[in-house]
User: Fold BrnT family toxin from Saccharobesus litoralis.
Amino acid sequence: MGVWLNWLNSIVVYTERDGDIIRIISARKATKQEVKRYEQSFKN
Assistant:
């Protein structure tokens, strides 16, 4: 999860090839539940 363009929170799925090539498979805005779960992971 991270900040991307104008989306405050986003989910990005990617793969790494040969150690220095990153291929983005999917990128979308995070749901409210995903943001909440992500924020709670820092409280524990």
Residues 12 and 27 are 4 Å apart (CA to CA). Residues 2-40 form one domain. The chain has a mean pLDDT of 83.
